[in-house]
Design brief:
This protein is mainly α. It has eleven helices and no strands.
Length: 273
């Protein structure tokens, strides 16, 4: 007995024609029955069994696209497309196709393991580091972007560069104690005078410093000019006694007045009178 599923479509198509031409019943002679039987068995000898695709299908199922680089998988798919077979192909054709496919699988490049790379990227957070150091770190990250299409060596090199750059990150300062100190007291709990004092001294220092140094600068300038006049007067008063005497005493009086006035003003301003 033969079954259509066991033979190629092409060979089976011819076989039913022979069967149809050799239909006999009990009304036929034995010779006719024997002749029909012989014709049918002869036709069965021409049937071509379907090929065994077990190894072929196993080869196709042995690899998965996600496990290999895009480039190598694309090349592999070209080989697969050139070696498509069915049960209508001869076993020799199926075996040749299977061999070509398994050979092409040997050229597939496995995708790289990005586990360590992704872990390195996730190990640091921007909020934990200073803006300047984080900006520099991001430049290194941008220069070391890899995917599963990169080789494992490239991925490992990128991971190493990133972890090295993380060592240069500068942590932000811990303001916990500072903020706690600020929050430890409330204005409503203290007298106005005591609460205002720190603020008063801070503003007073910023106010006094410029005025004090400006006053001192003005005093020194006048002092120097007055001293210069006195020196001139003393140098020439012998030969020009009548003409320089008034200048000398006027300069000396001016110098003394400026000295006293500037010192007093400076002292009053310093002590906030």
């Amino acid at each position: 007995a033969v079954t259509e599923a066991d033979y190629t479509t092409t060979s089976w198509t011819a076989y039913p024609l022979v069967v149809a031409e050799n239909v006999v019943t009990t009304d036929n002679t034995q010779a006719e029955v024997d002749a029909a039987t012989s014709a049918i068995t002869t036709a069965q000898g021409d049937l071509v069994p379907v090929s065994d695709l077990t190894a072929y299908n196993a080869a196709l199922a042995a690899v998965t696209e996600a496990d290999y680089t895009t480039t190598s998988w694309t090349a592999y798919q070209l080989v697969v497309a050139e070696n498509v077979v069915t049960t209508d192909n001869t076993q020799a054709e199926v075996d040749a196709a299977t061999s070509a496919i398994t050979t092409a699988q040997g050229d597939l490049v496995p995708v790289s393991d990005l586990t360590a790379y992704n872990a390195a990227l996730a190990a640091v957070t921007e909020a934990d580091y200073t803006t300047t150091s984080w900006t520099a770190y991001q430049l290194v990250v941008a220069e070391n972007v890899v995917t599963t299409d990169n080789t494992q060596a490239e991925v490992d090199a990128a991971t190493s560069a990133i972890t090295t750059a993380q060592g240069d990150l500068v942590p932000v300062s811990d303001l916990t104690a500072y903020n706690a100190a600020l929050a430890a007291v409330t204005e409503a709990d203290y007298t106005t005078t005591s609460w205002t004092a720190p603020h008063l001294w801070a503003s007073r220092l910023s106010w006094l410093a410029p005025d004090r140094w400006v006053s001192r600068g003005s005093w020194l300038a006048h002092y120097n000019w007055a001293s210069h006049f006195i020196w001139l007067a003393q140098s020439f008063r012998v030969s020009h006694n009548l003409w320089l005497a008034p200048l000398y005493w006027a300069s000396r009086n001016l110098w003394l007045a400026l000295q006293q006035r500037a010192s007093l003003y400076h002292w009053l301003r310093y002590y906030n009178f």
